[in-house]
Write a structure and sequence with these properties.
Blueprint (H helix, E strand, L loop, with lengths): L4 H10 L6 E6 L2 E6 L2 E7 L2 E5 L14 E3 L10 E4 L7 H15 L19
Antiparallel strand pairs: 1-2, 2-3, 3-4, 4-6, 5-6
Helix pairs in contact: 1-2
């Protein structure tokens, strides 16, 4: 699944200057990890943000925001902002700052490594 490369570039600009950002392909899009925690991302044309799980759509006061329903089931604290609300760098900076504030409140995680089982050779 393709994602909006221009939106990804704008997110990179919002996170510029940080040395704890890692980009990982995830959910058919691109996820930006900060200090080992999922912060935000791009899925198709939407900006995906992560906030406190107790946050409701109504708390964000924008008609362009919806609960992100990946796999047809809303994920608590994960929201999608439509492309209509992601047209300017200033707006994206505001959304990224909001999600970054939450992400930095979490305990940092180290880089994940995937263990690949060894095959037994006979």
């Amino acid at each position: 699944m393709a994602y909006d490369e221009l939106l990804a570039a704008k997110i990179r600009q919002s996170l510029a200057g940080r040395n704890d950002v890692e980009e990982i392909p995830m959910f058919g899009g691109l996820t930006f990890m900060v200090a080992g925690n999922m912060c935000c991302g791009v899925n198709r044309n939407d900006l995906i943000i992560r906030l406190d799980p107790g946050t409701a759509v109504e708390d964000l006061h924008s008609p362009q925001v919806r609960a992100w329903d990946f796999m047809k089931r809303p994920m608590r604290g994960i929201f999608a902002i439509t492309a209509a609300d992601c047209t300017t760098q200033k707006t994206i900076d505001q959304w990224v700052e909001l999600t970054l504030s939450y992400t930095l409140s979490l305990a940092p995680k180290g880089r994940r490594t995937v263990k690949i089982p060894r095959r037994h050779v006979r």
